[in-house]
Amino acid sequence: MRDAVIVDAVRTPLGRGKPGGAYADVHPVDLHAHALKSLVERVGLDPAEIDDVIGGVVGQVGEQSTNTTRMAALAAGFPESVPGVTVDRQCGSSQQALSFAAQGVVAGAYDVVVASGVESMSRVPIGSSQLGRDFAGPSVAARYPGGLVPQGVSAELIAQKWGLSREQLDEFAFTSHQRAAEAWRQGWFDAEVAPLNDLRTDETIRPETTMEALAGLRTPFADPHWEQRFGHIDWKVTAGSSSPYNDGSAALLVTSSEVAAAHGWTPRARIHTATVAADDPILMLTGIIPATAKVLQRAGLSIADIDAFEVNEAFSPVVLAWQAETGADLAKVNVHGGAISIGHPLGASGARLATTLLGVLDRTGGRYGLQTMCEAGGTANATIIERLDS
Which segments constitute the Thiolase N-terminal domain (predicted)? Predict the structure, then answer.
Protein backbone atom coordinates (compact mmCIF):
# COMPACT_ATOMS: atom_id res chain seq x y z
CA MET A 1 0.00 0.00 0.00
CA ARG A 2 1.22 3.48 -0.81
CA ASP A 3 1.83 5.90 2.03
CA ALA A 4 1.20 9.66 2.19
CA VAL A 5 4.03 11.95 3.20
CA ILE A 6 4.36 15.68 3.74
CA VAL A 7 7.28 17.13 1.80
CA ASP A 8 6.99 20.66 3.16
CA ALA A 9 4.55 23.20 4.56
CA VAL A 10 4.30 26.96 4.73
CA ARG A 11 1.98 29.62 6.10
CA THR A 12 1.61 33.35 6.03
CA PRO A 13 1.99 35.37 9.20
CA LEU A 14 -1.55 35.77 10.50
CA GLY A 15 -3.07 39.23 10.28
CA ARG A 16 -5.74 40.83 12.39
CA GLY A 17 -9.04 39.96 10.72
CA LYS A 18 -10.66 43.35 11.05
CA PRO A 19 -10.58 46.63 9.12
CA GLY A 20 -7.10 48.05 9.52
CA GLY A 21 -5.47 44.63 9.77
CA ALA A 22 -2.35 43.90 7.76
CA TYR A 23 -4.23 42.02 5.03
CA ALA A 24 -7.42 44.06 4.95
CA ASP A 25 -6.56 45.20 1.42
CA VAL A 26 -5.53 41.73 0.19
CA HIS A 27 -8.15 39.76 -1.71
CA PRO A 28 -8.56 36.27 -0.16
CA VAL A 29 -7.71 34.66 -3.51
CA ASP A 30 -4.36 36.46 -3.51
CA LEU A 31 -3.84 35.65 0.17
CA HIS A 32 -4.34 31.97 -0.63
CA ALA A 33 -2.18 32.20 -3.74
CA HIS A 34 0.75 33.49 -1.69
CA ALA A 35 0.92 30.26 0.31
CA LEU A 36 0.62 28.17 -2.85
CA LYS A 37 3.39 30.05 -4.65
CA SER A 38 5.64 29.98 -1.60
CA LEU A 39 5.19 26.22 -1.24
CA VAL A 40 6.15 25.27 -4.81
CA GLU A 41 9.09 27.67 -4.74
CA ARG A 42 10.44 26.12 -1.55
CA VAL A 43 10.14 22.59 -2.87
CA GLY A 44 11.30 23.34 -6.39
CA LEU A 45 8.16 21.82 -7.87
CA ASP A 46 6.90 22.41 -11.37
CA PRO A 47 3.25 23.23 -10.58
CA ALA A 48 2.20 21.46 -13.78
CA GLU A 49 2.78 18.21 -11.85
CA ILE A 50 0.12 19.01 -9.25
CA ASP A 51 -2.86 16.69 -9.59
CA ASP A 52 -5.15 18.81 -7.44
CA VAL A 53 -5.22 21.69 -4.98
CA ILE A 54 -7.63 21.01 -2.11
CA GLY A 55 -8.41 24.14 -0.12
CA GLY A 56 -10.42 24.71 3.03
CA VAL A 57 -12.57 27.80 3.41
CA VAL A 58 -15.38 28.46 5.90
CA GLY A 59 -16.98 31.69 4.67
CA GLN A 60 -17.79 30.53 1.14
CA VAL A 61 -19.59 33.68 0.15
CA GLY A 62 -18.67 36.90 -1.63
CA GLU A 63 -14.94 37.04 -2.34
CA GLN A 64 -14.49 33.51 -1.01
CA SER A 65 -17.26 31.92 -3.10
CA THR A 66 -17.41 29.97 -6.36
CA ASN A 67 -14.61 27.48 -5.68
CA THR A 68 -12.10 30.04 -4.49
CA THR A 69 -9.32 27.41 -4.42
CA ARG A 70 -9.42 27.12 -8.20
CA MET A 71 -9.08 30.90 -8.43
CA ALA A 72 -6.13 30.80 -6.01
CA ALA A 73 -4.33 28.24 -8.18
CA LEU A 74 -4.78 30.51 -11.18
CA ALA A 75 -3.71 33.56 -9.18
CA ALA A 76 -0.57 31.69 -8.10
CA GLY A 77 0.35 31.32 -11.76
CA PHE A 78 -0.20 27.56 -11.87
CA PRO A 79 -0.96 26.14 -15.31
CA GLU A 80 -4.60 26.14 -16.31
CA SER A 81 -4.44 22.33 -16.26
CA VAL A 82 -4.13 22.30 -12.44
CA PRO A 83 -7.58 21.81 -10.86
CA GLY A 84 -8.73 23.01 -7.46
CA VAL A 85 -11.57 22.19 -5.09
CA THR A 86 -12.87 23.93 -1.98
CA VAL A 87 -14.11 21.99 1.06
CA ASP A 88 -16.06 23.05 4.13
CA ARG A 89 -15.87 21.25 7.44
CA GLN A 90 -16.11 24.58 9.23
CA CYS A 91 -12.99 25.29 11.32
CA GLY A 92 -11.54 21.91 10.33
CA SER A 93 -11.79 22.62 6.61
CA SER A 94 -8.08 22.63 5.77
CA GLN A 95 -7.35 19.77 8.17
CA GLN A 96 -9.97 17.85 6.20
CA ALA A 97 -8.24 19.01 3.00
CA LEU A 98 -5.06 17.38 4.33
CA SER A 99 -6.96 14.15 5.06
CA PHE A 100 -8.50 14.12 1.59
CA ALA A 101 -5.07 14.73 0.05
CA ALA A 102 -3.56 11.83 1.98
CA GLN A 103 -6.46 9.52 1.12
CA GLY A 104 -6.10 10.40 -2.56
CA VAL A 105 -2.38 9.63 -2.54
CA VAL A 106 -2.81 6.32 -0.69
CA ALA A 107 -5.60 5.32 -3.09
CA GLY A 108 -3.48 6.15 -6.13
CA ALA A 109 -5.78 8.92 -7.32
CA TYR A 110 -3.03 11.51 -6.81
CA ASP A 111 0.75 11.54 -7.07
CA VAL A 112 1.30 15.15 -6.05
CA VAL A 113 -1.39 17.18 -4.28
CA VAL A 114 -1.53 20.40 -2.29
CA ALA A 115 -3.65 20.67 0.86
CA SER A 116 -4.29 24.26 1.83
CA GLY A 117 -6.67 26.76 3.37
CA VAL A 118 -7.47 30.44 3.60
CA GLU A 119 -9.74 32.81 5.46
CA SER A 120 -10.03 36.57 5.18
CA MET A 121 -12.15 37.50 8.16
CA SER A 122 -11.55 41.19 7.54
CA ARG A 123 -13.14 41.01 4.08
CA VAL A 124 -15.62 38.15 4.64
CA PRO A 125 -16.76 38.61 8.25
CA ILE A 126 -17.57 35.55 10.32
CA GLY A 127 -21.15 34.40 9.81
CA SER A 128 -21.53 36.12 6.43
CA SER A 129 -22.82 32.96 4.79
CA GLN A 130 -25.57 32.59 7.42
CA LEU A 131 -26.96 36.11 7.54
CA GLY A 132 -30.74 36.06 7.30
CA ARG A 133 -30.78 32.32 6.65
CA ASP A 134 -32.01 29.31 8.59
CA PHE A 135 -28.93 27.14 8.08
CA ALA A 136 -30.18 24.22 10.21
CA GLY A 137 -33.76 23.79 8.97
CA PRO A 138 -36.96 22.77 10.77
CA SER A 139 -36.06 19.12 11.34
CA VAL A 140 -32.91 20.01 13.29
CA ALA A 141 -34.89 22.59 15.26
CA ALA A 142 -37.42 19.90 16.12
CA ARG A 143 -34.67 17.53 17.25
CA TYR A 144 -33.05 20.21 19.43
CA PRO A 145 -35.85 22.32 20.94
CA GLY A 146 -34.62 25.84 21.44
CA GLY A 147 -32.17 25.42 18.59
CA LEU A 148 -28.39 25.31 18.46
CA VAL A 149 -26.40 27.94 20.30
CA PRO A 150 -23.58 30.36 19.46
CA GLN A 151 -20.08 28.99 19.96
CA GLY A 152 -19.34 31.43 22.77
CA VAL A 153 -22.28 30.04 24.73
CA SER A 154 -21.06 26.51 24.00
CA ALA A 155 -17.68 27.49 25.44
CA GLU A 156 -19.42 28.75 28.57
CA LEU A 157 -21.38 25.51 28.92
CA ILE A 158 -18.13 23.54 28.60
CA ALA A 159 -16.44 25.65 31.28
CA GLN A 160 -19.43 25.04 33.53
CA LYS A 161 -19.61 21.29 32.90
CA TRP A 162 -15.91 20.72 33.56
CA GLY A 163 -15.80 23.08 36.54
CA LEU A 164 -13.20 25.39 35.04
CA SER A 165 -12.53 28.66 36.84
CA ARG A 166 -12.13 32.11 35.33
CA GLU A 167 -8.52 32.09 36.57
CA GLN A 168 -7.81 28.80 34.78
CA LEU A 169 -9.19 30.18 31.51
CA ASP A 170 -7.20 33.40 31.82
CA GLU A 171 -4.02 31.57 32.77
CA PHE A 172 -4.32 29.33 29.71
CA ALA A 173 -4.74 32.39 27.48
CA PHE A 174 -1.80 34.15 29.14
CA THR A 175 0.40 31.11 28.54
CA SER A 176 -0.61 31.01 24.86
CA HIS A 177 0.62 34.58 24.34
CA GLN A 178 3.83 33.98 26.28
CA ARG A 179 4.65 30.82 24.35
CA ALA A 180 3.94 32.40 20.95
CA ALA A 181 6.01 35.47 21.75
CA GLU A 182 8.88 33.26 22.90
CA ALA A 183 8.65 31.17 19.73
CA TRP A 184 9.06 34.29 17.62
CA ARG A 185 11.93 35.55 19.80
CA GLN A 186 13.73 32.23 19.43
CA GLY A 187 13.18 32.10 15.66
CA TRP A 188 11.15 28.90 15.87
CA PHE A 189 8.53 30.18 13.41
CA ASP A 190 10.99 31.48 10.84
CA ALA A 191 11.15 28.31 8.76
CA GLU A 192 7.38 27.92 8.44
CA VAL A 193 6.43 31.49 7.56
CA ALA A 194 6.46 33.22 4.18
CA PRO A 195 6.08 36.96 4.93
CA LEU A 196 3.51 38.87 2.89
CA ASN A 197 3.61 42.60 2.27
CA ASP A 198 4.98 44.26 5.40
CA LEU A 199 3.78 41.62 7.88
CA ARG A 200 6.57 39.39 9.13
CA THR A 201 5.12 38.11 12.42
CA ASP A 202 1.65 37.17 13.65
CA GLU A 203 -0.31 40.33 14.32
CA THR A 204 -2.50 39.30 17.27
CA ILE A 205 0.14 38.04 19.72
CA ARG A 206 0.18 40.21 22.86
CA PRO A 207 3.38 39.50 24.79
CA GLU A 208 2.62 42.44 27.08
CA THR A 209 -0.66 41.04 28.36
CA THR A 210 -0.94 40.22 32.07
CA MET A 211 -3.19 38.12 34.23
CA GLU A 212 -4.50 41.36 35.73
CA ALA A 213 -5.44 42.70 32.30
CA LEU A 214 -7.18 39.46 31.38
CA ALA A 215 -9.07 39.43 34.68
CA GLY A 216 -10.47 42.87 33.90
CA LEU A 217 -12.17 41.84 30.65
CA ARG A 218 -15.95 41.49 30.54
CA THR A 219 -17.82 38.32 29.64
CA PRO A 220 -19.55 39.19 26.34
CA PHE A 221 -21.65 36.03 26.03
CA ALA A 222 -23.69 36.56 29.22
CA ASP A 223 -27.40 36.68 28.39
CA PRO A 224 -30.41 35.85 30.61
CA HIS A 225 -32.00 34.09 27.65
CA TRP A 226 -29.52 31.22 27.91
CA GLU A 227 -29.98 30.91 31.67
CA GLN A 228 -33.70 30.49 31.09
CA ARG A 229 -32.85 27.50 28.93
CA PHE A 230 -29.85 25.98 30.69
CA GLY A 231 -30.15 27.25 34.27
CA HIS A 232 -27.59 29.36 36.08
CA ILE A 233 -24.34 29.92 34.16
CA ASP A 234 -21.27 31.32 35.90
CA TRP A 235 -20.20 33.41 32.90
CA LYS A 236 -16.40 33.48 32.61
CA VAL A 237 -15.30 33.34 28.94
CA THR A 238 -13.94 36.65 27.61
CA ALA A 239 -12.35 37.99 24.47
CA GLY A 240 -9.05 37.22 26.17
CA SER A 241 -9.82 33.51 26.47
CA SER A 242 -11.24 33.34 22.93
CA SER A 243 -9.45 33.20 19.60
CA PRO A 244 -9.39 36.50 17.68
CA TYR A 245 -10.53 37.15 14.12
CA ASN A 246 -7.70 36.62 11.63
CA ASP A 247 -6.65 36.58 8.01
CA GLY A 248 -4.16 34.03 6.72
CA SER A 249 -3.37 31.03 4.56
CA ALA A 250 -1.27 27.87 4.69
CA ALA A 251 -0.36 25.03 2.34
CA LEU A 252 1.26 21.58 2.49
CA LEU A 253 2.66 19.38 -0.27
CA VAL A 254 1.53 15.76 -0.02
CA THR A 255 2.83 12.84 -2.09
CA SER A 256 4.00 9.25 -1.66
CA SER A 257 7.46 8.11 -0.55
CA GLU A 258 8.11 6.70 -4.00
CA VAL A 259 7.18 9.90 -5.82
CA ALA A 260 9.18 11.97 -3.32
CA ALA A 261 12.26 9.82 -3.92
CA ALA A 262 11.88 10.16 -7.67
CA HIS A 263 11.93 13.95 -7.28
CA GLY A 264 14.81 13.96 -4.84
CA TRP A 265 12.63 15.29 -2.02
CA THR A 266 13.19 14.33 1.60
CA PRO A 267 9.76 14.12 3.26
CA ARG A 268 9.43 15.71 6.68
CA ALA A 269 6.67 13.45 7.99
CA ARG A 270 4.14 10.85 7.01
CA ILE A 271 0.45 11.09 7.71
CA HIS A 272 0.10 8.16 10.09
CA THR A 273 -3.65 8.21 10.85
CA ALA A 274 -6.50 10.64 10.24
CA THR A 275 -10.10 10.48 11.33
CA VAL A 276 -13.17 12.53 12.08
CA ALA A 277 -15.72 12.26 14.86
CA ALA A 278 -18.79 14.06 16.16
CA ASP A 279 -20.40 14.92 19.46
CA ASP A 280 -23.28 16.91 20.97
CA PRO A 281 -24.00 19.90 18.67
CA ILE A 282 -25.14 22.01 21.62
CA LEU A 283 -21.85 21.71 23.50
CA MET A 284 -20.51 21.70 19.93
CA LEU A 285 -16.80 22.11 20.70
CA THR A 286 -16.23 18.81 22.52
CA GLY A 287 -15.84 16.66 19.41
CA ILE A 288 -12.07 16.75 19.87
CA ILE A 289 -12.44 14.40 22.85
CA PRO A 290 -13.94 11.42 20.96
CA ALA A 291 -11.87 12.32 17.88
CA THR A 292 -8.65 12.00 19.89
CA ALA A 293 -9.73 8.66 21.35
CA LYS A 294 -10.69 7.41 17.89
CA VAL A 295 -7.48 8.42 16.12
CA LEU A 296 -5.31 6.94 18.88
CA GLN A 297 -7.25 3.68 18.77
CA ARG A 298 -6.93 3.43 15.00
CA ALA A 299 -3.22 4.28 15.18
CA GLY A 300 -2.56 1.72 17.90
CA LEU A 301 -1.01 4.43 20.07
CA SER A 302 -1.65 5.83 23.53
CA ILE A 303 -1.77 9.45 24.65
CA ALA A 304 1.67 8.91 26.22
CA ASP A 305 3.14 8.00 22.81
CA ILE A 306 2.42 11.48 21.44
CA ASP A 307 5.36 13.88 21.64
CA ALA A 308 3.54 17.08 20.65
CA PHE A 309 -0.06 18.20 20.35
CA GLU A 310 -1.71 21.01 18.43
CA VAL A 311 -5.23 21.51 19.79
CA ASN A 312 -7.01 24.47 18.30
CA GLU A 313 -7.58 27.16 20.92
CA ALA A 314 -11.00 28.30 19.80
CA PHE A 315 -11.62 29.06 23.49
CA SER A 316 -9.60 28.21 26.61
CA PRO A 317 -12.22 25.81 28.04
CA VAL A 318 -12.16 23.70 24.87
CA VAL A 319 -8.52 22.71 25.34
CA LEU A 320 -8.77 22.42 29.13
CA ALA A 321 -11.80 20.12 28.96
CA TRP A 322 -10.01 18.02 26.33
CA GLN A 323 -6.95 17.77 28.59
CA ALA A 324 -9.07 16.76 31.55
CA GLU A 325 -10.62 13.91 29.56
CA THR A 326 -7.51 12.70 27.72
CA GLY A 327 -4.90 13.18 30.44
CA ALA A 328 -2.52 14.80 27.94
CA ASP A 329 0.47 16.67 29.36
CA LEU A 330 -0.23 20.39 28.84
CA ALA A 331 3.53 20.96 28.59
CA LYS A 332 3.32 19.19 25.20
CA VAL A 333 0.22 21.07 24.00
CA ASN A 334 0.58 24.11 21.71
CA VAL A 335 4.17 24.63 22.82
CA HIS A 336 4.65 27.47 20.31
CA GLY A 337 1.39 29.10 21.38
CA GLY A 338 -2.04 28.56 19.90
CA ALA A 339 -5.00 30.22 18.25
CA ILE A 340 -5.74 32.55 21.20
CA SER A 341 -2.45 34.28 20.46
CA ILE A 342 -1.32 33.31 16.96
CA GLY A 343 -4.82 33.51 15.55
CA HIS A 344 -7.62 31.44 14.07
CA PRO A 345 -8.27 32.22 10.39
CA LEU A 346 -11.04 29.57 10.24
CA GLY A 347 -10.50 27.78 6.92
CA ALA A 348 -6.71 28.09 7.14
CA SER A 349 -6.32 26.92 10.72
CA GLY A 350 -6.09 23.17 10.12
CA ALA A 351 -3.25 23.67 7.63
CA ARG A 352 -1.64 26.21 9.97
CA LEU A 353 -1.71 23.74 12.88
CA ALA A 354 -0.14 21.03 10.72
CA THR A 355 2.57 23.43 9.57
CA THR A 356 3.37 24.43 13.14
CA LEU A 357 3.25 20.83 14.38
CA LEU A 358 5.88 19.86 11.81
CA GLY A 359 8.10 22.64 13.14
CA VAL A 360 7.63 21.57 16.76
CA LEU A 361 8.54 17.96 15.97
CA ASP A 362 11.60 19.06 13.99
CA ARG A 363 12.80 21.32 16.80
CA THR A 364 12.23 18.85 19.62
CA GLY A 365 13.09 15.64 17.77
CA GLY A 366 9.71 14.15 18.63
CA ARG A 367 8.32 11.27 16.60
CA TYR A 368 4.53 11.53 16.82
CA GLY A 369 2.40 14.66 16.66
CA LEU A 370 -1.38 14.83 17.07
CA GLN A 371 -3.55 17.73 15.97
CA THR A 372 -7.26 18.10 16.56
CA MET A 373 -9.77 20.80 15.79
CA CYS A 374 -13.26 21.50 17.13
CA GLU A 375 -15.82 22.52 14.55
CA ALA A 376 -19.28 24.03 14.35
CA GLY A 377 -22.05 21.46 14.57
CA GLY A 378 -20.11 19.23 16.94
CA THR A 379 -17.66 17.58 14.53
CA ALA A 380 -13.89 17.35 14.95
CA ASN A 381 -10.89 16.19 12.95
CA ALA A 382 -7.92 14.41 14.50
CA THR A 383 -4.68 13.62 12.67
CA ILE A 384 -1.46 11.92 13.75
CA ILE A 385 1.72 12.64 11.82
CA GLU A 386 5.03 10.82 12.22
CA ARG A 387 8.24 12.78 11.80
CA LEU A 388 10.71 11.14 9.43
CA ASP A 389 14.45 11.28 10.02
CA SER A 390 16.19 13.17 7.26
Answer: 5-257
| pLDDT for residue 127 | 82
The candidate with the shortest Cα–Cα distance to 9, out of 251, 335, 270, 283, is 251
67 vs 83: CA distance, rounded Å: 10
Cβ-proximal residues to 1 (8 Å cutoff; 6+ apart), any chain: 106
Which H/E stretch holds residue 147? Answer: none
SS3 39: helix
374 annotated active-site: yes
The Cβ of residue 230 has, within 10 Å, a number of other Cβ atoms equal to 15
Tell me if residue 122 falls in helix, strand or coil: coil
Of 32, 34, 91, 177, the active-site residue reads 91
Q: Is 91 a catalytic residue?
A: yes
> What digits encode the pLDDT tens for the residues 155-164?
999 999 999 9
Q: Which of 32, 34, 177, 344 is catalytic?
A: 344
Q: Which helix (H) or strand (E) holds 361?
A: helix 349-364
pTM given for the model: 0.97
**Distance (Å, whole) CA 367 – CA 327:** 19
d(CA 226, CA 231): 8
